[in-house]
Specification:
The chain is built from six helices and no strands. By secondary structure, it is an all-alpha fold. It is globular and about 40 Å long. The N and C termini lie close together (10 Å).
């Protein structure tokens, strides 16, 4: 496993990392907002039932910490691309699961997003970056 990211891996890592880090920092700033916590928790728990018993504020805090950690891992070139890419791919798959299973996000009988689903469907690019990093490291 490489110690440092390759130069050509830095642009997609930085793009995804800055985006995710910002999302995590924003969630951290809103950690005491009950409405935000309830909305995020409700969306996630609707797809992933094991989250239903978790307190919404605790969920928001954990989600923010996870996004901050993942965003930082992607930005730092000393984190191996295999590790950062696997984390990104898993994160993106979880987001796409919410897109796929939440009613009203997709057009009937299709994977194409509705207007409401565009915000979640765009996370496919995160999955592509993550899988690209993983595959490059595994195939090299």
């Amino acid at each position: 496993m490489r110690i440092l990211a390759r130069l050509h891996q830095l642009p997609p890592r930085l793009a995804a990392g800055v985006y995710i880090l910002n999302s995590g920092l924003t969630k951290a700033q809103n950690k005491d907002d009950e409405a935000t916590a309830a909305a995020m928790h409700g969306l996630a728990a609707g797809t992933y039932p094991f989250l239903r018993g978790q307190d919404p504020k605790s969920f928001l805090k954990l989600a923010s910490m996870g996004e901050i950690a993942l965003g930082t891992a992607l930005i730092l070139p000393m984190v191996p691309s295999l590790v950062a890419g696997a984390g990104l791919a898993a994160f993106a798959a979880g987001l796409l699961g919410i897109y796929y299973k939440t009613p009203g996000m997709r057009q009937e009988g299709s994977l194409r997003p509705t207007q409401d689903g565009i915000a979640l469907s765009k996370d496919i690019w995160l999955l592509g970056i993550g899988l690209g990093l993983v595959l490059e490291e595994l195939c090299d």
